[in-house]
Give the backbone structure.
Amino acid sequence: MTTRFDQSPSADGLWTGLRGLDGQPCAITVADGRIVWTGAPDAVPAAHVSLPRHEGGGALVTPGLVDCHTHLVYGGQRANEFAMRLAGASYEEVAKAGGGIVSSVRATREASEDSLFASASARLQSLLAEGVCAIEIKSGYGLSLEHERKQLRVARRLGEAHGVTVRTTFLGAHALPPEYAGRSQDYIDLVCREMLPALHAEGLVDAVDVFCERIAFTLAETEQVFQAAQALGIPVKLHAEQLSDMGGAALAARYGALSCDHIEHLSQAGIDAMAAAGTVAVLLPGAYYTLRDTQLPPIAALRAAGVPMAVSTDHNPGTSPALSLLLMANMACTLFRLTVPEAIAGITTHAARALGLQDTHGTLVAGRPANFVLWKLQDAAELAYWFGQRPVRCVVRQGRIAEGAL
Ligand code: NIG
Ligand code: FE
């Protein structure tokens, strides 16, 4: 398939005139699509001096951004629920009235694979144009083998077509499908015994997630899904303590979870368990903002415990129709009081770790695939300062100048 990405120019050569996040001048050499050297401009290896030059003109350079929690593939949209909430209904009331996740399930089941690909492609392009080089995409709007497969296949196709690293997460335990009303255990059995093994065998599952919440699945059901994932050697993560403290984070930490996400109601015991397990805390200010939540995630305690904090869009049609990771960094600072360096680490280094990609993404290190962004900015703090604009000069993704130009 011919795509715009395939036609974009190679980034091989010597990149000079750059400034790192520390404000210091730096240079990068790219060969065969990988970073082979990075350092001070006066230390460029002699063998690299004659390579083709890409002159950055003093541009700020960062690692490619990583969006580590999205529900990017779905049918329809839910602006009507936005209106219901404005009229006073809560997220839980909307869900109980037949809206919420289940209404996106209806629209996703009705949509063809190609139409899901087209709508998700358009959304993905917004994120890519802002510097995203790796993204997690969850299923969870199919809730049957056929339709979860369709979502995950679209996620894989998006990665190939757009030249972006996609990590797929199976979120079969997102909500109880209507045909299983009152039969939660039967559905969890289906998830564990049929859906997960089949989708894993098809190479569609990089991680497994559960929505552990009083409007979704219990702690015991969550553990059953984790056991099924563990038996297949698949890493887990969790939608934990978003609306209440279910003890999900501590459970997830016991299973060595990559991340616990949302965590507004996280307890100190949960924080301690995450710190001990090396589990990343994924902060989702877009959902907090959309739901007009008032319970702040325990940032100071996470910081004190040394839990790495990532920041993500949580793009989804219900609670976070956000398509800007920089806006999420801004909100993480403004709403959650992250420092700017924390917010930047949250959309790069720590986000990569939340996906198990810490050895290939999220930092500028020789030997890694060339994924980096040149910004039309003077100061690193501007990354989290502006909102509503796209200050990208160019994006090098998978070794190509995929967005913008020098
Ligand atoms: O991350 N919390 C559960 N899942 C999504 C919401 C999905 C939806 O409402 O469609 C989230 O916020
Ligand atoms: Fe989510």
Residues 69, 71, 239, 314, 316 surround fe (iii) ion (ligand 2) (CB under 6 Å). Residues 139 and 151 are 6 Å apart (CA to CA). The chain has a mean pLDDT of 97.
